[in-house]
Structure to design on (178 residues):
């Protein structure tokens, strides 16, 4: 991925709380267009292999949550976590991680991830298609800065590097361009 790339317009199928719905699951479906998330604002996106997985749950998502205010203070309107998981899984993961600020975006069918060139096969561990770990700053619908982990693979190796796509690298970049 290169700076200047315009991500595709896709629809994310999300579940949002609706107080008008009774019962233990007061959520309704809401289709969210990626253009609505990206155009006219500056956003930080990080994508990862899967909800509830070790590196994603121990470091990446909680790290971005802990750095949310610092990232926003440097001219970012929103921080999104995208994963090839459905809305039920993403919402349950955010709840289990006590995420209050980072917005989790379910790319259940992997369309956005595929168009970003980051869809990989993790069939060897029973995951199916997932996202390679990447992060980006998108400014008014255009990639401003791009990071991805080295060694993108589809070949059965279970390398899961995590060094380029840290919240600390995001903060460092944002400080350098502020």
């Amino acid at each position: 991925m290169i700076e200047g790339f315009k991500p595709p317009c896709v629809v994310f199928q999300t579940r949002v709380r609706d107080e008008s719905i009774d019962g233990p699951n007061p959520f309704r479906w809401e289709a969210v267009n990626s253009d609505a998330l990206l155009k006219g604002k500056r956003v930080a996106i990080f994508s990862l292999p899967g909800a509830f997985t070790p590196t994603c749950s121990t470091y990446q998502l909680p790290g971005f949550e802990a750095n949310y205010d610092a990232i926003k203070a440097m001219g970012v309107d929103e921080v999104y976590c995208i994963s090839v998981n459905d809305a039920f899984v993403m919402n349950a993961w955010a709840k289990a991680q006590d995420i209050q600020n980072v917005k989790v975006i379910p790319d259940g069918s992997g369309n956005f991830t595929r168009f970003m060139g980051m869809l990989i096969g993790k069939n060897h561990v029973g995951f199916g298609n997932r996202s390679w770990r990447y992060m980006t700053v998108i400014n008014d619908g255009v990639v401003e800065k791009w990071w991805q982990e080295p060694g993108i693979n589809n070949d059965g190796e279970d390398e899961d590097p995590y060094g380029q796509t840290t919240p600390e690298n995001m903060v460092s970049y944002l400080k350098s361009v502020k």
About this structure: The chain has one domain: 42-177. The beta strands are 11-17, 27-33, 42-48, 78-83, 103-106, 119-121, 129-131, 134-139, 142-148. The longest strand covers residues 11-17.
